[in-house]
Description:
The protein is of the alpha+beta class and about 500 residues long. Among the domains are: about 1-75, no CATH class; about 320-370, no CATH class; about 380-490. The protein has helices at about 15-25, 30-40, 50-75, 75-85, 100-110, 115-130, 145-155, 175-185, 195-200, 205-215, 230-240, 245-260, 265-270, 280-295, 305-315, 345-365, 365-370, 405-415, 420-425, 470-485; strands spanning about 1-5, 15, 320-325, 330-335, 380-385, 395-400, 430-440, 445-455, 460-465, 490. The protein is globular and about 95 Å long.
Amino acid sequence: MARRIASGTEDGVLRLPMVRHLRALGFRDVPAYLKWCQEVGVAPSTDKSADEREREIAIVAKRKAAIEARNRVHHNPRRFLTEACAGRIDPADVERPGWREVAAAIARSKNDPEARDQLAAFLLHLERVSDLVFAATVGRQSVLYVEGLIRLHARKGLWVRDLASWRPSSHNAARQFSSLARHLLAQYEVPIFMDSAWLRGDRGAHRFRDWFVHIGLGHNIRTAKTPYPMTKMIAHHFVDAPDEATIEGALMLADVKALGGGQRLARALMGTRLGQRIESDPERRAFWLSVYRFFIANPMLDLSYTGPIVDFLSAQKFETVEVMVGPGEVEVRSPPQPNLTMSRRTPESLLRQVEAWHGQLRMARANDKRFWRASGVASFAMRTGPRDRPADQVHWSMRELLSGQALIDNGRELRHCVASYAASCARGDCSIWSLDRRLGVVDDAESVLTVEVDAKGVLVQARGARNRWPTDQEKSVLAAWMEKAALKPGRYLYGF
């Protein structure tokens, strides 16, 4: 007896034992079965003996049992942590969001049997008494607390108290983590903003963790290995920085306050390129401190000019310039004004120079002929407003700028210096986007924001006309785009 099928065998006929066999395996058609045969390493044929069919049934049963066993582990937090620390869980096999990242973090930790056993005991205790192991931070950039827990465990030799005596006094994961870090490593008060040192994996963050331990043992931050010597005033303002500050932000705030400035100026400076690094070179640091003094001495200067001024001063004093001197021949020239100082400068004269420089950037012929490939980041479009009233709707779209001329045009429209990013875009260091807005049934769209995304998929900055900050509505559009395109917000995207 046989059963005819539409396709899948040479004669179009599948014998009844094979029909029953495919049903037992859970396949509805022959092509899917043949593909499975190739995947598991058996002959891709519809003519199988009874022994071959029995072996295939055993393969399916074994796989099903393995999946069931894995699911039992992957839904039991204690067994999951034990197996992950023992190296018996592949993070790629974990389907539960959050748990996959926990397994990956454990897999990246020190792969030594004794260290892993100790880590397992540490995490199992915390899983029993707190919510930390599988919790994530709440904010612009989600980070699992297990990353910080693993780093706390790595400093076990410096613990000042026993883990078993710690109990959380709050259900809030951030407060639990703060309490645990201080229980293990601090005998004296440590600023809350220093907690981020344990949750950061960027290069150099280990130095900040050293500072946490140093302060926690009662030592002054001035005696830690800081990138530059701190005065008593700077040290005072650093440890007194707001809880929500970043560590770099606290350093800048301390500098500005020690010079007589305020948090508003510090926030504006953190939105510039200065907020993305710690300047340790004595000559450069002295220059930028003189720039801070300039802003402090001119309190009526609109802080929206902070970014353009910093860009101008950096380009003139520190940045080399690439000049085309022949076909395919580039000459690297020294900074235009390496001896530039802030001495006797007035806001009016400086702004005239900045505006002239920006104008040159917008008209620079070296950039207008540049083109580069798309970054691969997904574009985006959305609509806000009442669906039943098209005239009142707002249409938003993210558009990548892929030429020097596009940057020049965007800079001219929004009155900023985005044209200076042509070389970085061409190198693939970043991509520049325009957030365009179209109102109602109007055909033409206008650019309202220029957005920078770095090569790691981090949205570094977003500025509107004359370097203004994004509005709340624009922030919501950016948030939707970041979710769709799997982008991360930069640490100083909207200040600190």
